[in-house]
Structure to design on (269 residues):
């Protein structure tokens, strides 16, 4: 419990290290929230968050694309890890040549001025390969749009857009206690969407709610003392934090208590 100007309100520090089940992870876990009677509150808000930016650039949810050569297709899996355009070009060349259905040879170059890849194919007998990206594929790292197929021309392929190795721009925090009614999106369990593009890899995302009223969500009527929390990337995949812990500070309060809301609003400024 926390004391605010003489008003006692239940706030809880949710630490993924203290998750309840062995099958839980730092990105998807249950956590105790000990409240005697949830009926005395109707609002939940995420007040602040500490989120390690410890997920990989390429991970199991976004590391597949399809290479097609002369009607033969193969799904290529990029090994999980952190990459930028410079260190990815040599790995991409190896992946293409290792997985080529017809033994084609590839040269991969990254232009630091245009921020685009250029790939040249050899020993292809005039056949023009293609790349396909579907679902949560790494299209941005290739400088392509989602759910597209892009082909070589004259044995050369160049990114149609600048590459983007910031695959996740927002972390979406969800909680089974919340009932959003679509204010944030179709998923009613969303507590907040947190921009992460200004935090470098291996850094710590420090977030505070800009507005208690805008950040508050209705409490689900079936709430229990061990709700589930989860954190998702832009493809709605649960994030793998690689054994680094997430900390979330949540607050419960009554929406129509005007004096209390005024005091709580001052707290979050």
């Amino acid at each position: 419990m926390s004391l605010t100007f003489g008003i006692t309100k239940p706030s809880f520090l949710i630490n993924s290290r203290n998750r309840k089940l062995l099958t839980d992870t730092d990105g998807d876990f249950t956590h105790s929230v000990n409240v005697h009677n949830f009926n005395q509150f109707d609002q939940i808000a995420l007040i602040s968050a500490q989120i390690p930016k410890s997920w990989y650039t390429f991970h199991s949810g976004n590391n597949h694309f399809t290479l097609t050569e002369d009607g033969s297709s193969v799904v290529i899996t990029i090994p999980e890890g952190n990459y930028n355009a410079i260190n990815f070009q040599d790995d991409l060349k190896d992946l293409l040549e290792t997985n080529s259905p017809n033994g084609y040879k590839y040269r991969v170059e990254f232009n630091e001025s245009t921020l685009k890849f250029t790939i040249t194919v050899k020993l292809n007998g005039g056949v023009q390969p293609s790349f396909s990206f579907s679902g949560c594929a790494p299209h941005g790292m290739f400088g392509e749009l989602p759910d597209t197929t892009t082909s070589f021309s004259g044995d050369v392929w160049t990114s149609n857009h600048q590459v983007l190795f910031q695959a996740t721009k927002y972390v979406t925090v969800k909680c089974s206690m919340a009932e959003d009614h679509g204010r944030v999106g179709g998923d009613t369990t969303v507590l907040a969407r947190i921009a992460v593009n200004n935090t470098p890899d291996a850094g710590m995302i420090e977030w505070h709610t800009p507005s208690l009223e805008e950040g508050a969500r209705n409490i689900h009527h079936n709430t229990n003392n061990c709700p589930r929390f989860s954190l998702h990337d832009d493809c709605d995949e649960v994030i793998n934090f690689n054994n680094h812990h997430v900390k979330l500070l949540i607050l419960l309060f009554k929406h129509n208590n005007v004096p209390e809301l005024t005091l709580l609003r001052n707290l979050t400024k």
